[in-house]
From TrEMBL:
The keyword Oxidoreductase applies. Keywords: Monooxygenase, Oxidoreductase. Residues 33-123 form the ABM domain. InterPro entries: ABM_dom, AI-2_Isomerase_LsrG, Dimeric_a/b-barrel. Pfam families: ABM. This is Antibiotic biosynthesis monooxygenase. It comes from Spirosoma aureum. SUPFAM superfamilies: Dimeric alpha+beta barrel (SSF54909). GO terms for molecular function: monooxygenase activity.
């Protein structure tokens, strides 16, 4: 009987438990909202825009637990074309983010600077990958 219990425990801890934990982690990752924000900025206001964007991103990452990543890049040959990788813990975190004072300040301040904005919903190809 003791051998039987040991075998059951071995199966539980080496086969079944990792499967359950892995599926739970995968379910949590699927809840994440991941998107690209593609913007074109008025070239005459680019430096002012970048200052406002930096302030907003730093505040969001520092103050909001649900904001996992906001990473902005500009195209090398087209510096007015900016793409922001946005990763939120879930849709609720995103909805809370767009109501924060720092985000509303950014949206109001940059409204006239943004010539176009496209939000691209994405599906992570490697959902468990962590950004260092």
């Amino acid at each position: 009987m003791k051998i039987y219990k040991s075998a059951v425990n071995l199966i539980l801890f080496t086969v079944i438990l990792p499967f359950i934990v892995g599926n739970n982690a995968l379910a949590q990752e699927k809840k994440q909202l991941v998107r690209l924000a593609k913007l074109v900025i008025d070239s005459a206001q680019l430096n002012t825009y970048k200052t406002a964007l930096k302030e907003e991103i730093e505040a969001s990452v520092r103050l909001e637990a649900g904001v996992l990543t906001l990473y902005a890049v500009a195209e090398k040959d087209n510096p007015t074309h900016i793409t922001i990788l946005e990763i939120y813990a879930d849709t609720a975190a995103y909805m809370a983010h767009v109501k924060t004072p720092h985000f509303l300040k950014y949206k109001t301040a940059t409204q006239s600077m943004v010539k176009s904005l496209e939000l691209v919903e994405t599906v992570p190809l490697i959902p468990g990958m962590k950004i260092k």
